[in-house]
Amino acid sequence: MSTRSSRSLRGLAVVGVLVPALALSACSSSDDAASGGETAAAPTDGVLTVGLLGDIGQPPDPDIYYANNGLAIVLNAYEGLVQYKNDSDAVEIAPRLATSWESSPDNTTFTFHLQDGVTFHDGTPFTSAAVKVAFDRRIAVEGGASYMVAGVTGVDTPDDLTAVVHLDKPNSAFLDYLASPFGPKMESPTGLATNAGDDNAQTYLSTHDLGTGPYELTKAETGVGYTLTQYKDYWGSSSPFTSVELPVYTDESALELAFDSGDVDAIVAALPSSSLDKYSKAAVKNYFLPTLQSALVTVNSSLPFFKDTEARIAFLKSLDQKSLVEQVLGARSSVATTMYAGGMIPGDADKQAISYDPKPLADYAATLPDDAKSLVIGYANGNANAEQMANIVVANLQTDGLKATAQGYETSTVFGWINDPTQGPDAFIDGNNGPDGGNPYMWGHVFWDASGGINYFGCQSEEVNALLDRAVVDGDTDLYTQAGDLYGKTGCYLNLSYNKDWVVAQSWLTGVAESHNIGANELNFAMLGIDGQ
Amino acid sequence: MRTFAFKRAGAAVLLLIVLSFVLVVLQQISPADPARAYLGANASPSAVAAKREQLGLDDPLPVRYVHFLGHAVTGDLGRSLRTRNDVTHDLGTYLPATIELVLAAFLIALFLATLFAVSGALQWRGTGAVRGGLLVLGAAPPFVLAIVGIVLFYGRLGWLPGNGQGASDSPGPTGMLVVDALLHGNGPLFAEALRHLILPATVLAIIPAVAIGRILRTSLESTLRADHIRTARSKGLDEGHVLRHHVFRNAAGPAVSMAGLQLGFMFAGVVVVEQVFSWPGIGNYLAASIPVADFPAIAGVTLVLGTIYVLSNTAVDLLQAAADPRITA
Predict the structure, then answer these.
(1) Residue A256 contacts residue A231 (beta carbons within 8 Å)
(2) Do A58 and B43 touch (CB under 8 A)?
């Protein structure tokens, strides 16, 4: 018996040593691979592989899709009339299917001159007639971004290459709606009619496309992966990649390993900042590309802790913004100093008035009775950066004697708080969020107006909303600045950082910065290349 | 026996009705907003409100439950708010991959459990490390095993793939790649599918293997000490004959019960493994549906998993009753 026991113990001891050793060896090998000098070879079969972290979440139908990483498909299979200028940190409208455009002085009529020689993927020539069809479909399918064309009263087509769009009221943001990655894209009228079914071709466009872009969607398997195949008759320039594979990885570590092994060629805005250090030492290329996204803090004025404006302001002042951003977000972000996204208001006239001072909150905390010292700082589950920031904020609040806790919430729950803000936490840290486009109205409306979509706790000011509504008529920068100043005084909001898209790519991949624009958050695969080719 | 079977089937149906009611209640009281998942993150509250009404999300609980149950009994589980497909279509797409993974894991678990139990009970030399290894691995959470497995066998050694199922299109008819490749005599596809299957199936198998193995080992050890075994040996019967005909047969009962339970647990526990390995099964489908409150998809998967669990338990009960008629008394 004793012999058997000692044998078992020896066996267990051997395993007890071997298993952790294997695990440690595995982990260290992962770091070695990333930090080593080995570089993956460029593909010779014309296939580019861009790993997706998580599925795209909605069908890649341009009138439905209103999420994030699926834009890699939408923006390469479809094109709009205009887009934001590539490789620029300025918000500047650039041509796409429209070569030029004019707007009436009152911003109610927009005339677009269209690119000649463009065909849809089903062979149908692109003409001005497609513009109204695309706008009408967007309204008919009632997607989240249908508001962008809700004000269109008609589209005149004086000739095949001219489209004149009429709006029901002045809107200086209309071109930004069209340039938005979620903006209306041109879809083959023939294809839409042929595949209409009983749902305006929604079923068809969940696995196919009807766009004019450089790539066609040739395979769509939800949760597994997507394949784009180069469109041979594309009117613009083409890349050496005849096919783009977009495999779905549901685990971050697995995606990183696939990249480290050379099975994935690029990862676009998917990895957390905690991986920055690893890849900054690796034989790969890191790109930090401008976006309209920010990390934000929103404060819940419907709960007792932050009922008073003074308490909210004191809390926002207590946040060591510079330290939070540098410590957590690192090179992919810079400290935000303005109410709107960086560069939206010329000359940064929209300065934030909040500056770091922990004393007011410490003083406020000291006045609170013990049973009123509890508060919850929320973050979205799965957002590692926001979680880390929330934990740091909580630790600092606890030093003031507050009973602070950090809590994660599912995205769908976060967006449900607007119906009853008392169900939410006392404050929420958003790791990365932004408007649909680069117009200040699009920022102010979504973040500050309770009807905008991302004002989680419905903290709003009628005066601010009125200023935004007046400003959008003719794009009056002063009015936007006033709206920002006024909203800042509510203490409900702090723009923490200007975030960048962090793209990590194998060293042979070229054209990454040139293929990216400030609004897109994805790459135009047709503009990518291979070093030396 | 027939009465016993009917009673068990009735209890199973009742359990599923209760489960479906709990699901609808949970959705009713959840602060999550499925209409937001349908429209997208930046949709305005007015658009979301309109969609809520259109989807019937504001209807009273009894109305929603009757609507849900009425459709569910006809096989209509609604339309996924995320994929926009019928949930039954999605389940038909993803379930075969999960079944393939769980069945492969189950076979591995049975093999490892038998090795664990027999080597321990018969005190085979040199197998202590195997048993110890299984115990240590069985103590680790599946997601840790999965990540270490990927890092080691994919990242470092490059022996096995770490993501997905391999070829994305099954040639049919089962939807299970390994099985279909065999049926079509497609050697390269079979090899590729098998390579992708080994790692996730092994990770999923470890904990059930230990659970079944421990029961089987205890059962084997007590059977080996039984009087009839001593009698059989004293009669001069061949040791192999004694083990096959007198030990294993008598010791298998409790292990079969545990195996049945573990099969049910494996279906429930497949979510984590599928997520780490990006395995295109219903676990992954469920994991993607939860953050966006895609209730029809969540309810569909839950009902399928619940049905499998209830059926496997019922099967165990019936098997035990068949083996020991006193249970039905």
Answers:
(1) no
(2) no
Residue A429, classified by CB atoms within 10 Å of its CB into exposed (0-12), middle (13-18) or buried (19+), is buried
Whole-angstrom Cα distance, residue B180 to residue A445?
A: 54
CA dist., res. B274 & res. A476, Å (int):
52
Q: Is the pTM of this model over 0.90?
A: no
* B46 has a chain A CB within 8 A of its CB: yes
pLDDT digits (tens, 9 = 90+) for B67-126: 888 888 888 888 898 888 899 999 999 999 999 999 999 999 999 999 888 888 787 877
Please give the single-letter amino acid code of residue A362: A
pLDDT in tens, A319-357: 999 999 999 998 889 999 999 998 899 999 999 999 999
Tokens of A479: 């009015």
Phi-psi region of A345 (alpha: psi -120 to 50; beta: other; left: phi over 0): beta
Shortest distance between the Cα of B315 and any Cα of chain A, in A, equals 32
Contact flag B137-A19 (C-beta cutoff 8 Å): yes
Residue numbers in A near B168 (CB within 8 A): 219, 221, 224-225
Coil, helix or strand for A182? coil
pLDDT of residue A261: 92
- Listed as ranges, residues in chain B with pLDDT below 50 are none
Q: Which helix (H) or strand (E) holds A24?
A: helix A2-35
Top-confidence range, A5-14, A459-468, B42-51, B220-229: A459-468
pLDDT (tens digit, 9 = 90+) per residue, A233-260? 999 999 999 999 999 998 888 999 999 9
A185 three-class SS: coil
Q: Give per-residue burial for A67-81: e unless 16+ CB within 10 Å, then b.
A: bbbbbbbbbbbbbbb
Task: Round to whole Å and give the CA distance between A116 and A126.
Answer: 8
Looking at chain B, list the stretches that DSSP marks H as alpha helix, in order from N- to C-terminal side. Answer: 2-29, 34-39, 45-54, 61-72, 87-121, 128-139, 142-149, 177-183, 187-224, 227-234, 239-242, 249-276, 282-289, 295-323
Listed residue (A424, A447, A469, A474) closest to A105, CA to CA: A474
Burial class (CB in 10 A: 0-12, 13-18, 19+), B1: exposed
Are B42 and A144 within 8 A, CB to CB?
yes
